[in-house]
Amino acid sequence: MGRPGVTALLYREDAYARECAARVLSAGPEGVLLDRTVFYAQAGGQPGDIGVLEWNGGAMAVARAVKGPDDGVLHLPAEGATTPPVGAEVAARLEWALRHRHMRMHTALHLLCSLIPGAGVTGGQIGAERSRLDFDLADPPAKDWLTERLNALVAADHPVGERWITEAELDAEPGLVRTLSVQPPRGAGRVRLVRVGPEDAPVDLQPCGGTHVRSTGEIGRVEVTKLENKGKQNRRVYVVLAAGE
Questions:
Q1: Are residues 42 and 66 in the same domain?
Q2: 198-210: buried (b, 16+ CB within 10 Å) or exposed (e) per residue?
Q3: For the chain, how many structural domains are there in total?
Q4: CB atoms within 10 A of CB 171
Q5: Minimal CB count within 10 Å: which of 54, 75, 158, 163?
Q6: Rounded Cα–Cα distance for residues 83 and 90 (Å)
Q7: Residue 191 has pLDDT above 80, yes or no
Q8: How far is 111 from 106, CA to CA, in rounded Å?
C-alpha cells in the first residue's frame, strides 16, 4: 500500500493490470488521490488513462489521470461527477481498449527510434489513432521503407522488457538517452530502461516510464503515413495502426 501523499504505481509492475482495489487519500475538484493505482498519469507524450472509480454507493468517471504532488497520481473527475469520500475503498478500473492501443503505439515508436539511429528525438505524442516522433534530422528515410522495416520488426515478435540502472550508470552511457528536450527524471537514484529485443542484442534500449506490450507481435501491422518538415533539422514522422488492427 502507498503511504500518504504517494501512489503505488501498479502499472510499473504489470502494464496489463486492468483494475485494482485502492484507498482514497484525498478528493476534490483537483482530482482523487489513491494509495495505489493502475492508471498511467500523463507523461512523456503518453496520454493519461481514463476509466472509473467505484465504491459502495457511488461511481466516478475518470476523465484523465495526471501527475500529482509527491509522486502521486490524480484521477480527474469527469464534469459533474461526484468524488468518493476520503478513506473510502474503491475499485479503480481502466478503459482497457484505449490503454492497450496506447501500449501498442508506444512500443511501435520505440521500433521507429531504432530505425533512425543517431538522430535525437525532439518531441513526440502518442495517440490511439495516430502517433508521432520528431527527429533532429535533415533527410529521413522514405515512409515506405520505414513502414516495411517497422512491420518486419513487428513480425519478428521481439520480447519487450525492462531493467533499472543507477543514475551514475546512465551518466556513464549518455547515448542511451535519445530525447533532446526531455531528460529522464532524476532524484530517485535509479532510472528505468525499456528494452526491445534480446538482452545481448537489443533492437532498442532507452530510458522510458511508459507502458508497453510484452512483445512486438502484439502491436499488429503499422503504417508510416506522413513525413513532415517542421524546421531546418526537424522531421516529424507519423505512425498509425493499420485498419482493423
A1: yes
A2: eeeebbbbbbbbb
A3: 2
A4: 10
A5: 163
A6: 11
A7: yes
A8: 9
Alpha carbon separation from 107 to 59, 95, 178, 186, 219 (Å, rounded): 32, 19, 15, 23, 7
pLDDT at 179: 84
Whether residues 22 and 108 share a domain: the answer is no
CATH number at residue 212: 3.30.980.10
Q: Which of 94, 119, 151 is the last residue of a domain?
A: 94
Query: CA 6: distance to chain centroid?
Result: 20
Which one has a higher pLDDT value, 194 or 69? Answer: 194
> Can you give the pTM of this predicted structure?
0.93
User: Could you tell me the three cell numbers for 15?
Assistant: 502494464
Does residue 1 lie within any of the structural domains? no
Type of residue at 122: T
Q: Is the same domain home to 120 and 211?
A: yes
Determine the length of the chain.
245
What CA–CA distance (Å, rounded) separates 169 from 105? 28
